[in-house]
Design brief:
717 residues; mainly beta; 4-stranded antiparallel beta sheet; binds calcium ion
């Protein structure tokens, strides 16, 4: 298209002297003039093209490739017969060092991707040549409001614009050709603990974006913005506000009947829409996944019980107005961080001889749901992983039957799946040819107990409402080592018709990448132990792998340019598990090397040798804190520091391991950072509004204890 516009035709050019003249370009192979600028418009995606996405399989025009979000590519040039001939075609180094979760978009030969800190990059999809980068310059201290790393899952494109959400809540539209800002709008007050990490979707000239923040305390919502101006057109809250102020709509009035107490005073109820959306153009329904409550513990949030709508629900809305149509709640009275924000896939499948329009989700709670997407009725549900919180989902009521003790009211409960879920944000994929869904499964336990002290809402900080020390890892190294084999991850191929596992591949660690399936009978997945692997889609047989030098969490995608199929995956370890579970992070995952890797048949590119040494150098001072102070420090650390610096002060090495920090040698220097905010510009905000000198000293004493222990363990190895 780009060439056809000018090669072999008469082209009018304006020369150096401002003179207008014409040139005849005689031969397509050796053109003697160069046009002033590419004449092909870029990223001219619209609703018509997106709805007909299967008619142009070479493009990947929206987050999940199609509105149905199947992440299945009809391209089959790379297939189970030749996948072993895949090699590195090109790579591009992203200049960030935190988790990379984005799915690149490719339209007409141009790739648009994001990396951490919401930085957007455009590349030539054929060779990785850099076109432009846009950095929204998010203030680093905003990381204080992130539960799960400073990640971003990608852009949306529409009629020449590239649109994305920045971590600090700005929705920004760029000119796809230049990367210059067309418009930007704040979707929330950035001083509130909301964040954006998800990719926008665009339906009928409306940009849809939600946000995260339910660990801290926010009132979840999704809103639609005009694609040309950024003007907000509608907003749908997912949980009711203060009833005395009136309700925004009937849906909120209905939802409020399912809550008790004064939840709006505890941060707003939660229920953030931080990731999944899907759209059925025929039914004209937008489906959104809603997250957990604030605080997690329902006994505190809604002491009289109740379902607490629309937490942990899939909600169907009208995209034109945001009007509520139906909902299905996966986890009524959510009390475990069991979000239903996980990937939603729409498919038309035959069940008992009848074609059915279904929606599929494997939310954190461990059940795989098949829902009738016309009305929200449960078709079937079965657990895709071992679970302890419920026995099954009752087919008649559509509700889970909870196990005794699961609400940890009287005693500590060993919960499967953990707060990380049986499946987290890492996208699954559905292959209509095999009829299987490929789920990146997590298999990790967690321990829940009521808090030792009365819950006090902490504005601007995490508010989980469970006992932090119980939820953490055991203090003794031997006990933590004993837990190691329980921290597992696998790729599961799930049959939604029979609700049974078809095959599985056990990985060597947890927190592996999202999946892509293709018409070449292939499934692609990156792993925590730094591999990018192709399996057969029907049987799960490994065919090919490439060493990625860093853990992979993002899903792969595939596209074609000039008749050649490419497979791309963003690599760069990160996310919640990477930060929190430093103890169990695979050594090959760390540290982060953020890159776009693109493969094609017959290529043989290689990556430069990595230079890092992922090791903590211990040099702790003598312990001067009292046992009481260390104990206080442990509790404070769990409540305030653990989310970034890791359980038991063991970092995943994406950010500094405090046990090896020079700051623990000097309380004044430590306070200067923790209370004074001296490293604010590096992402370590001041915590002075929550911690005081006593607590800061206690945290330091706890970290020194952990450093001394870590040094002993390292010496014994
Ligand atoms: Ca959560």
């Amino acid at each position: 298209m780009k060439q056809a516009a000018w090669v072999g035709t008469v082209v009018r050019l304006v020369g150096f002297f401002g003179l207008s003249f014409t040139v005849f370009t005689g031969c397509a192979d050796t053109p003697n003039v160069v046009p002033e600028a590419p004449s092909t418009p870029v990223a001219r995606v619209d609703g018509e093209r997106l709805i007909a996405a299967d008619s142009e399989p070479g493009n990947w025009m929206s987050y999940g490739r199609t509105y149905s979000e199947q992440r299945f590519s009809p391209l089959g040039a790379v297939n189970d017969q030749n996948a072993s001939e895949l090699g590195l075609a090109w790579s591009y180094d992203l200049n960030t060092a935190r988790g990379v979760e984005a799915t690149p978009i490719v339209v007409d030969g141009v790739m648009y991707t994001t990396s951490s800190w919401s930085i957007v990059t455009a590349l030539d999809a054929r060779n990785g040549v850099h076109l432009w980068t846009y950095d929204p310059k998010v203030k680093k201290e905003k990381s204080k409001h992130t539960c799960c790393d400073v990640v971003n899952r990608g852009v949306a494109v529409w009629e020449g614009q590239v649109i994305f959400g920045a971590l600090d809540g700005r929705l920004i539209a760029l000119d796809a050709a230049t990367g210059k800002v067309n418009w930007e709008v704040a979707t929330f007050d950035p001083t509130l603990p909301y964040t954006i990490t998800g990719a926008p979707r665009i339906i009928k000239d409306k940009v849809l974006i939600g946000n995260g923040g339910a660990e801290f305390g926010v009132r979840g919502f999704i809103a639609a913005y005009d694609v040309d101006t950024g003007e907000r057109l509608w907003r749908f809250f997912t949980v009711p506000g203060d009833p005395s102020l009136g309700f925004e709509n009937d849906a909120m009035k209905m939802a409020a009947m399912t809550w008790s107490g004064e939840w709006w005073k505890l941060g707003g109820g939660g229920g953030t829409v931080w990731d999944s959306m899907a759209y059925d153009p025929e039914l004209d329904l937008l489906y959104i996944g809603v997250g957990n409550g604030t605080p997690w513990n329902q006994k505190i949030r809604s002491p009289g019980g109740g379902d607490n709508l629309f937490l942990s629900s899939i909600v169907a809305l009208r995209p034109d107005t945001g009007e509520y149509v139906w909902h299905y709640q996966t986890t009524p009275g959510e009390s475990w961080d069991y979000t239903a924000t996980q990937h939603i896939i729409l498919a038309d499948i035959e069940l008992e001889g009848e074609p059915r329009k279904v929606l599929m989700q494997a939310p954190k709670n461990g059940f795989f749901y098949v829902i009738d997407r016309t009305n929200g009725a449960l078709v079937s549900a079965n657990n895709y992983i071992q679970i302890t919180w419920a026995t099954h989902v009752d087919k008649e009521t559509g509700r889970p039957v909870e196990a005794e003790g699961a609400r940890y009211e009287d005693a500590k409960f060993m919960l499967y799946p953990s707060y990380l879920g049986g499946h987290n944000w890492h996208p699954m994929s559905y292959n209509p040819e095999t009829g299987l869904v490929y789920i990146p499964v997590l298999d990790i336990p967690a321990f829940y107990a009521q808090p030792a002290e009365e819950f006090e809402y902490r504005p601007d900080y995490t508010n989980l409402g469970i006992d932090g020390i119980t939820a953490g890892l055991p203090d003794a190294q031997a006990e933590r080592d004993a837990l190691r084999p329980l921290i597992a991850g696998r790729l599961v191929a799930w049959d939604p018709k029979t609700q049974k596992e078809a095959w599985r591949v056990e990985h060597s660690g947890s927190w592996n990448g999202g999946t892509l399936s293709t018409a070449g009978n292939l499934v692609f997945q990156g792993t925590a132990d730094a591999k990018f692997v192709a399996y057969t889609a029907d049987k799960g047989e490994p065919l090919w792998e490439f060493p990625t030098q860093t853990g992979v969490v993002a899903p792969a995608m595939t596209y074609a340019v000039d008749g050649e199929q490419y497979v791309t995956v963003n690599v760069g370890w990160g996310g919640a598990f990477a930060l929190v579970f430093g103890e169990y992070v695979h050594a090959k995952s760390t540290p982060n090397m953020s890159r776009v890797l693109t493969f094609k048949l017959g290529a043989n590119g290689s990556l430069p040798e990595p230079k890092w040494k992922p090791v903590v150098t211990f040099n702790p001072p003598a312990q001067s804190g009292t046992p009481e102070s260390i104990k206080l420090g442990h509790a404070q650390y769990q409540d305030t520091c653990m989310g970034c610096h890791g359980l038991n002060a063991v970092s995943g090495l994406l950010i500094p391991d405090l046990r090896g920090s020079a700051l623990i040698h000097d309380q004044a220097a430590f306070d200067n950072v923790v209370l004074g905010g001296a490293l604010r510009d590096k992402g370590m905000a001041s915590f002075a509004s929550e911690l005081d000198a006593e607590k800061s000293a206690a945290i330091r004493a706890y970290v020194i204890q952990q450093a001394i222990r870590g040094q002993q363990v390292q010496a014994s190895q």
